[in-house]
């Protein structure tokens, strides 16, 4: 992890993961919290899957971002789809759940895009300290012309 965006996305990912742990724990104890898990069993599986994906994202593996996107997409995407297609009034609790579900979809998309951009930077790296020398054809020609003029004889 070399980029500030990667650090920020992993911190957001960890904070959202800890928030979901608190939500599952409070639901299991019967304590009222801001939101409740959609399906507790799938939530627990998703928490472990998110931890594995978090490790892979830190290592800049594209597989980690895709696992995170697939897991969160299945969990929150289905919930958003059913919530928006049902003809019911939106209560305050449904609006709060919709906000957390949207965060659960947007964050993995940002992580996948960040990983894709990082893969492009790794494939085509630029280093300002050395590119002026290695990618400068005029400097190479100048050096070649000077090398041809300086012929020394050994007698």
Question: Could you explain how this protein is built, in words?
Answer:
There is one protein chain. The protein is mainly alpha-helical. It has one domain. It is built from six helices and no strands.
Q: Tell me the distance between the termini.
A: 58 Å
- The value of Rg in angstroms is 26 Å
Estimate the global geometry from the Cα principal axes: elongated
Report the major sheet.
none
Strand content: under 5%
The helix tally amounts to 6
Any low-confidence stretches, pLDDT <50, length ≥5? none
User: Structural class, judged by helices and strands?
Assistant: mainly alpha
| Global mean pLDDT | 82
**Overall number of domains:** 1
**In sequence order, what are the helices and strands, one letter per element?**
HHHHHH
Question: Can you give me a brief rundown of this structure?
Answer:
This protein has 155 residues and is mostly helical.
């Amino acid at each position: 992890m070399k980029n500030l965006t990667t650090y920020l996305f992993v911190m957001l990912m960890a904070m959202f993961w800890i928030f979901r742990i608190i939500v599952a724990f409070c639901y299991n104890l019967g304590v009222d919290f801001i939101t409740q898990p959609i399906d507790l069993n799938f939530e627990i599986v998703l928490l472990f899957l998110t931890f594995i994906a978090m490790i892979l994202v830190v290592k800049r593996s594209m597989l980690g971002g895709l696992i995170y996107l697939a897991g969160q997409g299945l969990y929150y995407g289905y919930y958003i789809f059913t919530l928006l297609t049902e003809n019911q009034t939106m209560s305050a609790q449904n609006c709060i759940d919709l906000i957390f579900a949207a965060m659960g979809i947007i964050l993995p998309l940002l992580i996948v895009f960040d990983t894709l951009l990082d893969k492009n930077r790794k494939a085509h790296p630029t280093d300002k300290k050395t590119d002026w020398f290695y990618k400068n054809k005029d400097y190479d020609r100048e050096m070649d012309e000077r090398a041809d003029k300086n012929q020394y004889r050994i007698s």
